[in-house]
User: Fold these one by one.
Assistant:
Number 1:
Amino acid sequence: MSETGTTPLAVIVLAAGQGTRMRSRLPKVLHPIGGRPLVGHVLATAQALAPVRIAVVVRHERDRVAEAVGRSTPEAVVVDQDEIPGTGRAVELGLAGLGDFAGDVLVLSGDVPLLEVATLEGLVATHRGRDAAVTLLSAVLADPTGYGRVLRDASGDVERIVEQKDATDHEAEVAEINAGVYVFRADALRRHLPDVGQANAQGEKYLTDVVGLARRSGERIAVGQAPDPAAALGVNDRVQLAEAARLLNARTVRRWQLAGASILDPAATWIDVDASLAPDVTVLPGSYILGATSIAAGAVIGPDTSLTDCEVGEDAVVRRTDATLAVIGPRASVGPFSYLRPGATLAAGAKVGTFVEVKNSQIGEDSKVPHLSYVGDTTIGRGVNLGAGAITANYDDVTKHRTEIGDEVHTGSHNVFVAPVRIGDGAKTGAGAVIRKDVPAGALALSVAPQRNIEGWVENNRPGTAAATAAENARTAQETGHGTQRQEG
Ligand code: UD1
Ligand code: CA
């Protein structure tokens, strides 16, 4: 229709409710799924429709909700609901917040996060195509418990919506539910909302009553059915929250699979909506790809790996690892059992191995920290090997200091680097060294006293013990020339 292009669209998002059934300190609409609050999903969908205005109605924990709205949708108008409860009152005030707006008003519930843009575009198109006063989105559910039911007359036209708590047993048998999403002509809303009362089981001003009022004044009511009934899911308690998270994740995993990522076990892989996976990424079970993590082509992630706001380069391998705000270069190898904290940056081909923690440190090209180490506030050049058990002592009880390790440095096992300290290019350190002073390029640093063996100490000081017997046997064998079969360690 020609109107489609000319009728302006505004959106009102309902986010003022308390969400009592969540039993939470956090307002319901701020509970996250897929790394984003419920209301953030609804706002993202609203934005995709490019409405002329978006109003968000808040009340419970209004500052926290308003702050989240401002972060995701700075252009939204935040409207405060007053002490009159109910979705009808929320829309009445939201509409006032839109000023003298004339056109179509799409009402979205802040707790219905899974509806897709195409579904809402379809709803708006139905509304305009049918020239309706009200168009509601419905879905037929196997278990409609808790939702408002769509009541139709003998000829199939919508008569009204009845809430679960107000429904007779007969009405409650209806499987067609109100998804809590509607398109109204602004003038129809303005006309009917003042007539909505609070005489119902919850003592609230129900938005759903507008449907019955419009019908009685002879206006046209249209219905769009949700193509995927599961997408109409409303989140009122933690069970529904988990279900919404699962459905969203299934959708996200499928999207990346179709884009070329191998995800072996979709149910055992969680990917936030803002993460991205290149083609030929492989994700093994038990992996969490969270926040704005991006993974380049050919990388292998998992099993049992959690990446939050990380960047993973091409063909990197990250196994059994927990990483946050880390940059893992191309062909780098991480894990198993590595912990990368914010600011850990691994250049191409670098390796962080078993039981290694790295924080705020750069590890250069092809450098390795293979075993049992803590590397914090450290710069490591290229071609370095830190021996097993390396510890950077970066904290002197007052401030953090840096350790700087040059190129091609190889350190002995079990070294402590007491920062601030520098190890020059090509230098080496002995096993067990405690490095407190700078090591010049090419030097060998030793800090452990030379070893002294006190012969016969065990037999003299621990006579009769198993150790003394073993020592005595070894001595006798050597003295009689029978010790040759003993292996060298
Ligand atoms: C509502 C509908 C119900 C529908 C269901 C779909 C009404 C009366 N009922 O029921 O027909 O099947 O959604 O999920 O509309 N809110 C406000 N201000 C308020 C009360 C609620 O902004 O005073 C907001 C809530 O924050 C929430 C949304 O409106 O985002 C829906 O409120 P909720 O109390 O969850 O309604 P339901 O009982 O689920
Ligand atoms: Ca709800």
Note: The radius of gyration is 33 Å.
Number 2:
Amino acid sequence: MTAGIDDIAIYIPRLYIDAEDFAKARGLDPVKLQKGLGVSQMAIVDSNQDPAILAANACLKIMQKNKLSPDDIGRLYVSTESAFDESKAMNSYVIGMLEQVYGQGTFEHCGGIETKFACVSGSYALYDNTNWIRAGEAEGKHALVVVSDIAKYDMGSSGEMTQGAGAVVMLLNDEPRLLQFDPKVTATSIKDEYDFYRPFGKETPIVHGQYSNMLYMIQVRKALESYKKKVVSSGLVKMEPGETILDHMDYINMHLPYSNMGKKALAYLVRHEWRQLPRWKRILTEIGIEEPIPKDPRGTIESVLGDEEFMTKDHEFTKLFTKTQEYQEVFESKLASSLIASTMIGNLYTASLYLGFRSSLEYEYQKGVDLEGKRVGFGSYGSGSSAMVFSGVIQPEYKEIVKNMNLVAELEDRRRLTLEEYELLHENRLTPDKSMLHSKKEFVLVDVKTDAESRGERRYSFNE
Ligand code: COA
């Protein structure tokens, strides 16, 4: 049985901080954010918003757009790393909110959980729900998988320039109009690591940024190796001599903690794939310098990062590699469109990969490319750490969905925060009733109880 993504919707909070304002306040060169990281604006949540609200607003949008009733939905999963309760799952809050619109008990039949594995858990949720459909258990119903996060780092930390917030919801079924997942090729890799984590009770993560970036690339490469084996053994793709698996992906979407991380990760993967092929000789000639090797090629990530001479040379080599014409063609045709949304919104943790997918669809369509039958590869990564590589094929009815996508219009009535306003929000100094915006047709947080008996209980309402 087939299964995949039928439709996709996003909800992005309407407040943002501009890279220019942020850099000025932190004494940074704005070009570091804009060009070095690919961050122009970062979406920020209001004081009456939390990750469950972002998820619920996205779900309502996709249900209304597709005229779905709660009876049409068999499962609702929320994937997040911004959980605010150690036990009560975020999908229960989302269902509570949706029932304010659709009626008490209307989602009673709808199973689901909250999934956690840093930024990769949404991909596991998609995989599990796809298999629920493939197993024939959906009985004609759809699944909703919502990835929702608030990427928030300590003030003054290096992570603070890679923040953002938002939710992406995907409607899954057995006759998807957008993307059908390739069966039996999804591949994972996993390793117990501390590159990025958020201990109980702490609102912001502990991050080893450069370590995490390198681990991300290594883990995705491992998952790609396993994907390659599955693709060949399942007969999905026939690899001719001199080809790489990436040649068989028309589009590649990478996890984007910031837009330029996609560039970094693609360059790393392509470089490792091409190195084994005859074309590498030609590329090396064009680059004009030798490919550097670390002092201890079998060393740890720490030893490689600590090898300053190698890191400098490798940086130079990568820069030259990414300027080669062959690499530029791969970058422009397979990845570039997926990076656009991230520059305007920032880091969405679990939702970053899927915002990238949404971005790629919209901007490739705008270029006039016929997307039907194109294979999309996904490189998903979650700190702690696990990677997942999988793929799918764009379906003949995709235009029905993609022709109406308009990210700029969706972000149109955003408000640029002053740095003082941003800091008030960041430090949680505003209560929900003192929100910056008065939103209409959206769920909002009214109150979080503080008394001993009901501590942590959240009250939400739908603003008509
Ligand atoms: N003008 C233009 N570019 C500049 C610049 C300037 N003035 N200053 C720096 N840059 C470039 C750097 O060369 C670098 O580019 P490169 O990656 O091509 O080398 C880029 O900007 C970032 O600079 P860097 O010095 O590496 O930044 P940093 O160490 O201060 O922090 C992160 C960057 C991403 C590590 C940090 O923001 C972070 O930890 N963020 C959280 C990321 C995360 O969540 N990671 C999890 C992985 S899933």
Note: Residues 29, 31-32, 35-37, 119, 158-159, 161-162, 196, 207, 209-210, 212-213, 216, 257, 264, 315, 381, 383 surround coenzyme A (CB under 6 Å).
